[in-house]
Amino acid sequence: MKNIALCFDRARATNATALADLLSRDSAQLVWTPAAACPAGGSRFPTRRAARVSARATVAEAYRFLVQEWESDDRLFLFGAGLGAACARTLARLLGAVGVLNADLPGWTAQDFRAYVLSTYVMPRTAHDGADWKRIGQLAADLSGRTDVATGVQFLGLWDCLAVPGQRRPLDPEPLSNVVAAR
Q1: What is the pLDDT of residues 76-101, one digit of tens each?
Q2: Is there a contact between 57 and 31 (Cβ–Cβ < 8 Å)?
Q3: What pairing do the DSSP bridges indicate for beta strands 3-8 and 75-81?
Q4: pLDDT tens per residue across span 155-176
Q5: What is the pTM of this model?
Q6: Alpha carbon separation from 27 to 4, 67, 93, 156, 176 (Å, rounded)
Q7: Distance CA 108, CA 175 (A)
Q8: 3-state DSSP helix/strand/coil % of the chain, to nearest 5
Q9: What number of H helices and E strands is found in the chain?
Q10: CA-to-CA distance for 169 and 45, rounded, in angstroms?
Q11: Which of 14, 62, 82, 174 can pair with 10 through a Cys bridge, CB separation 3.0 to 4.6 Å?
C-alpha cells in the first residue's frame, strides 16, 4: 500500500505546488504534478478554449498516471488551487464514476475504453446531473463485470476553486460519494 498525492495548480505556482514540494517522495508515497500547468503559449490570460483544452489535458494526464501507478489498496489524495482545484474535483468525480480502468474490460482494449472515457467525460461538453454520473458508473461496472468501479479518494483539498472558462456548470450539486474527507 502506498499514498499517491496528485497536486493540481494554476499557471502560477501556489498552495498545491508548495504542498507538492513539501511532500516526501519515495516508494511509500508518490507525488504527481502536471507537466505543464498553463495552456500552450504560456499566456497568463488564456482564451476560454485554450483554458478548457489545457484543463482537460491535465486531468487526462493525471488519470493516465493513476492507470500506471495505482493499485487497489493505495490511498489517493487530491489537491488543487485555482483552476487546478476544478481539475482535482473533476478527477475525483471521474474516479467516483468509472474508477481506474484497468485491462479487465471485455470487448474493449483497456486503452481504447480509457481514451473514450477521457475524451467524453473529462469536463464534458454537456452538463450532467447526479443521475447521469450514476448511469455512467453503472455502465463502466457492467462493462467490467463488477458491481462497482468507483475508486476512493481519501482527501480532496481545494483552494480558491475557479470554474474553467467555457466549461458548463453541473445541473445540480454533484455528490462525491467516493471522497472520504474534503476541505
Answers
A1: 999 998 888 889 998 998 898 888 87
A2: no
A3: parallel
A4: 998 887 777 776 666 555 667 8
A5: 0.80
A6: 10, 17, 27, 22, 28
A7: 29
A8: 40, 15, 45
A9: 5, 5
A10: 21
A11: 82
Cell representation of residue 89 = 474535483
- At residue 30's C-alpha, the angle toward residues 108 and 91, to 5°, is 50
Closest CA to 82 of 108, 50, 44: 44
Number of domains in the chain: 1
Residue 179, strand partner residues: 153
Distance in angstroms (rounded) separating the CA atoms of residues 143 and 123: 22
What span, in angstroms and rounded, lies between the C-alpha atoms of 102 and 164? 28
State how far the Cα of 54 lies from the Cα of 160, in Å rounded to an integer.
18
User: Residue 88 burial (CB < 10 Å; 0-12/13-18/19+)?
Assistant: buried
Task: Name 119's Cβ contacts closer than 8 Å, sequence gap at least 6.
Answer: none
Alpha-helical (H) ranges within the chain are: 15-22, 48-69, 83-98, 110-121, 130-144
Percentage of the chain surpassing pLDDT 70? 74
Is the distance from CB of 177 to CB of 152 less than 8 angstroms?
no
Residue numbers of the domain that contains 156: 3-182
